[in-house]
Amino acid sequence: MRERTYWTAMAVFLAIVAMWLMATGRGKAATKPAPPLAPEVSVIHVMGEDVATYREYPARTYARDLVEIRGRVDGYIDRRTFNIGADVRVGQVLYVLDERPYEAEVERAQAALAQANADIAQAEASLLKATQDVDRLEPLVKDEAAPKQDLDNAFAAHRAGEAAVAARKATMAANRAMLRTAELSLEYATIRAPIDGRVGDSLLQIGGLVTKTSAQPLTTIVPLDPVWVRFQVSEAELPLFERAHSGAVPIELILSDGTVHPHRGHIVNTLNSVNTKTGTMEVQAMFANPDHAVLPGEFARVRVRTAERTQALLVPQKAVQELQGQQSVLTLGPDDTVVARGVVTGDRVDQRWIVEQGLKPGELVIVDGLQKARPGARVTPRLYAGTTPPATGR
Predict the structure, then answer these.
(1) What angle do CA 30, 31, 37 make, to 5 degrees?
(2) Closest by alpha carbon to 287, among 307, 263, 305?
(3) Rounded CA gap, 209 and 152, in Å?
(4) What 3 state SS string does 161-224 have?
(5) What pLDDT is stored for residue 95 in this prediction?
(6) pTM
């Protein structure tokens, strides 16, 4: 009895499972898979714009008139009067050497000059006496009241007196020069800034010996206003920079952090030959730098305005794909299908390329969602953020 009940229950269970399997099978057969959704992409309407075109070049700032501070006289440093890295003005005292030896030289030269003055006075007195003797003896000799020998002696004494005065005056000139030299040495014992600029590290400290023949400078001063930059341009671009040299082309300095220097510059000169290895030539430009924000040795970029374009077609840089040297963009065709289009780009304007060939005004170009768009597939277009709808709908 138990066995019959067991098999009856199993039969009922299997019947229920079979009915469930049949029901689920029919449900699956009746359900059709939903078609995949068209991926969303961001697009822009390509419209003509009037823009200015620029070119950028890597550049390096430098100080054209860097000055090395050296001693003109020998001596031990008694004082250093500047802070390292500070801005200094022309004529500002930087170092003071031990002045005592040079003060002594000045005093000795002054004494020698005073002695020379005294010697001149004595020689002039002797010359005056010789002149008086000649004046007194000439009428006496003429009247034969005095021997001619006495007159000859007086003439000889007069000539000797003139020579003595001349010699004393030459000695006085030499002593005056010696005094001037001693005064200059004393003046050079105080070392001053020859230009405005920023002073560097002091390579000799207080107590160090300064020698005028030393190969090592005491410090350096770099002028910071204006600041200079140098960069390389290809020989094909030389006509542009001939115009820029005349001041007709404005240039900007873009610093390493991406900020634009507030003062526009101008090209001052180009070097006199093209580098045969690189086919480039160095260009040097100058920028006002009154707040000393730009320092020599910084990496930067120079932006040069090259032309004015009317009704240029521009697309964001990220919309342009490049493969094996060929550039292309993805556009939208009929029914929002993706179409690949080969293009030729020109100059860059901020973060956009000017498209010279391959596009027409009013076409839709995909900017975001390129990885989801495939040529021939349909997509759902959305207006790219930061753009405005076109005047006429598509």
Answers:
(1) 150
(2) 263
(3) 63
(4) HHHHHHHHHHHHHHHHHHHHHHHHHHHHCEEECCCCEEECCCCCCCCCEECCCCCCCCEEEECC
(5) 93
(6) 0.59
